[in-house]
From TrEMBL:
Its main location: membrane. Residues 37-55 have a biased composition (Low complexity). This is Efflux pump terG. It comes from the Eukaryota. The gene is terG_1. It comes from Vanrija pseudolonga.
């Protein structure tokens, strides 16, 4: 097995390296194949995938002829930065799309006649489809071209934002938001694959830092722009959708010009896609999210016959998906949609990283949604007043982006993640302690600049770690899995905290409290839940992410593997 690490510009040591792995092995007996396949340790590193049948993964070759694939050609400095900004703005657009309409939710509710229980679907429909279609989008990008998928996703997103701006009913707007989310899901994994396939060294680390920072910066900026349009534009929230339409077209146009063309695939490149698995996981996740939300908004809640029925179906579909993926990998030559080995890479730390991201994002997304309601419905600031109070979010996001890009080569990834999710939990705690008469400069202000730290420290480090652990031909789908868990975490977190907020508000009304105090009780309960989720992610990160080290250390370990054979277990399994 030959492993190569992409180097930075000449004369500079690579600290955030990318793995280009090309496996080669001698013919082995059927017995040794079986032992290697059955051992969990066989999939701790990307190189373990070489044990798969030759007809499925074509990187197998004889040791004497196996050569590492060449590093991507060094792009001119201007084009590298153009590529970085294109992908970053696509992520910022994605973040803004999820929060930009939040500031206008009270107005949308009144204008379109949406009930309080269904109002959260205006926000969560986008993140739901965004998360559900990321995996299949990642596989399509790896199979048919990341640039094509990226441009197609941006244009699809733009079309449905334009259509949504002309909707005059709640259900119609929700459908268009869901369709726009599907388009955005095509851009995220292909964008990560574009970075991994065209940049290396420090430039790649910087690009991933910008990519990860794009979402929280876009979320904060989208909230500010949405508030200004709601307060001053005659078309209010519809004008925001027009801006997103134009932004999607501009990003697609620049990507067409500056993103390098997809590399030609040889005849041995396996383009088959597991459509059955895609249908299982997508429908399962959609049904799960729907039943969790509708279990509260339905007239009789979980006592409605269809709610527990669909919930059971969703669990069965999700479980069947994982069984199906295992079957495809171990019993057939058909490529699975998701390689379950991803969860065991780096002795299970990659799986732990995925889980930390999911739990942390449940808290982050719910804070971003409910703090707007706190300002407008409890503090009665109006849209413009809420915008002013959100200004620390994008400012903090930009500062965090600069800090992460400079320290990610020097500070262990575990420390960065733990610090980030702890700040998110602290932000939710400050908001939970904020009352009707709390001054902004006490708890709310501190919550505003703290909430974005978690996202800005979690996403870039996770993206780089995933790219180091993934095979070259699975960069998009591995990144898609990370983003899927973030998106679904946000969607589930928004649903759960909305359920809690509605429940506690109704209890307060039943006790005879006035409307504002009733809303406050519900929002405080949602913030406490968000804080608990964020601190849970912190504990998981402290326990299960130990020993990851810094990016340069990971690269050095890979360099060592390239020079020396990896140690073997009794069954011939490779350790990290």
């Amino acid at each position: 097995m030959t492993t190569s690490i992409d180097k930075d510009d000449a004369g500079t040591r690579s600290t955030a390296s990318t793995l280009a792995i090309h496996d080669g092995h001698d013919a082995i007996s059927e017995k040794s194949k079986s032992e290697s396949s059955d051992s969990p340790a066989a999939e701790l590193e990307p190189s373990a995938e070489a044990s798969r049948p030759e007809s499925t993964i074509t990187e197998d070759a004889a040791p004497e002829t196996a050569l590492a694939p060449p590093a991507p050609p060094q792009l001119p400095t201007g084009r590298r930065w153009a590529l970085t900004l294109i992908v970053m703005f696509s992520m910022a657009m994605n973040g803004g799309a999820q929060t930009g309409l939040n500031i206008a939710l009270p107005l949308i509710q009144t204008e379109l006649g949406i009930t309080e229980a269904n109002l959260q679907w205006v926000a969560s429909a986008f993140s739901l489809t965004n998360g559900c279609f990321l995996l299949i989008s990642g596989r399509v990008a790896d199979a048919y071209g990341r640039k094509r998928c990226f441009i197609g996703g941006m244009l699809w997103y733009a079309v449905w934002c334009l259509v949504g701006s002309f909707m005059h009913s709640g259900p119609a707007l929700i459908v268009t938001r869901a369709m726009a989310g599907a388009g955005a899901s095509m851009g995220i994994p292909s964008g990560m694959g574009i970075i991994a396939g065209n940049l290396h060294g420090r430039q790649r680390a910087t690009a991933f830092a910008c990519f990860g920072a794009g979402a929280p910066i876009g979320a904060g900026t989208g909230m500010v722009i949405g508030g200004l349009l709601t307060a001053y534009a005659s078309q209010t929230w519809r004008a925001l959708l027009w801006i997103f339409t134009g932004l999607g077209v501009v990003i697609a146009s620049f990507a067409f010009v500056y993103v390098p063309a997809d590399k030609a695939k040889g005849p041995e490149h396996d383009r088959r896609i597991d459509w059955l698995g895609a249908a299982m996981i997508t429908s399962g996740l959609v049904l799960l999210q729907f039943t969790v939300s509708d279990g509260v908004s339905a007239p009789r809640g979980w006592r409605e016959p269809y709610v527990p029925t669909l919930f059971s179906v969703s669990i069965i579909l999700i479980a069947a998906f994982f069984v199906w993926q295992w079957y495809l990998k171990n019993k057939t030559t058909y490529p699975p949609l998701l390689r379950l080995a991803l969860f065991t890479r780096a002795r299970g730390r990659l799986g732990a990283y995925y889980f930390v991201g999911f739990v942390a994002w449940t808290g982050f997304a719910s804070i971003s949604y409910h703090v707007n309601l706190y300002y407008q419905q409890v503090k009665l600031t109006g849209p413009l007043g809420a915008v002013v109070r959100f200004l620390p979010v994008p400012i903090s996001g930009i500062i965090c982006n600069i800090i992460v890009a400079r320290v990610i080569h020097r500070v262990p990834l575990q420390f960065l993640v733990c610090f980030g999710v702890f700040c998110t939990g602290l932000s939710a705690t400050f908001l939970a302690l904020s009352g009707r008469d709390t001054l902004y400069w006490t708890f709310p202000f501190n919550a505003m600049y703290l909430v974005v730290i978690g996202a800005d420290f979690l996403v870039p480090t996770g993206s780089i770690f995933v790219s180091l652990m993934a095979l070259p031909q699975e960069q998009s789908v591995a990144g898609a899995l990370f983003q899927t868990l973030l998106q679904l975490g946000g969607s589930f977190g928004l649903t759960l905290t909305s359920v809690i907020a509605t429940t506690y508000s109704n209890k307060a009304r039943a006790r005879g409290e006035d409307e504002i105090d009733s809303i406050l009780k519900g929002l405080q309960a949602s913030f406490w839940l968000a804080a608990g989720l964020a601190f849970t992610a912190f504990v998981i990160a402290v326990i299960f992410l130990r020993g990851i080290g810094i990016v340069s250390e990971i690269a050095q370990r890979k360099n060592k593997e390239a020079a020396e054979p990896a140690p073997q277990t009794e069954k011939g399994d490779t350790h990290v």
